[in-house]
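Input/output pair, single chain:
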Amino acid sequence: MGRVLEMGPGNNRTMLRVQTNGDLSKVKPGDWISVAGVTSVVLGRAPGQGVIWVVAGFALPFVLHDDDDDGLLPQYPPTAWMPDALAEVYVVPQFDTLGVASHNSLNAAPFVSNLHTNVLQLQVVTNGWGSRSLNANDFWVAYVITCYQREFADDDDPNAEPAALGSTFLLAGGSLLYAETIRDVAVATGAVVHAEMNVTAVHELGHALAGPLPAGLVEPVTVCDRVGSCTQRVSYVPLYQAVIRSRPRPAGP
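Output:
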């Protein structure tokens, strides 16, 4: 008796890494092994590695899946809570999502399920921000795009891991919102998903408008960081209000 720790295909056979109190050296090719009610012929074993090989195509009648929502599709960044927060820093927003193709570079940001590196994250912003050149002292332009999630180590899977809800490139400009991780955190904390999305959007926009600060990355950005208490309105903390009011333009060229 024992349990299977790992299973995978290879070299026309299936590898089973097992944990058992028995003696694997007594298992011989041609013997039978049963896992979760599925029986297969043993092709070989490596007792020192705790490995048994069985026939190719060995499959169990179930699959393991984390709590990610496979049906979560790309979406426009939420903007409903931005006007109130921006009004307090004397900014009147004009939202352009579909707009002019030459400004938005439609279809220029390829689909990437997980942005595992900073290079990939920056590429999404660089390739997609077609209105970057319009950023001026009297006409601010910020770029926000939703993605699925960031690196494996920051995607809240399992829940003990850090949860990166968004990223903003303080020098290059551009912000990313990680929709699946935001959903994960909302479910775990009992927050409302759309509220979490809106708070994160305002938060990352605050980083973009404020740009690099002398003290480095300063948190919190909004009075709602992190979530839970805000359901329809969010404001920037006094430090970010003061910095944004004094900036000539957002991060980026």
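The two ends are 65 Å apart (CA to CA). The helical segments are 82-87, 101-104, 118-128, 179-189, 193-210, 238-246.
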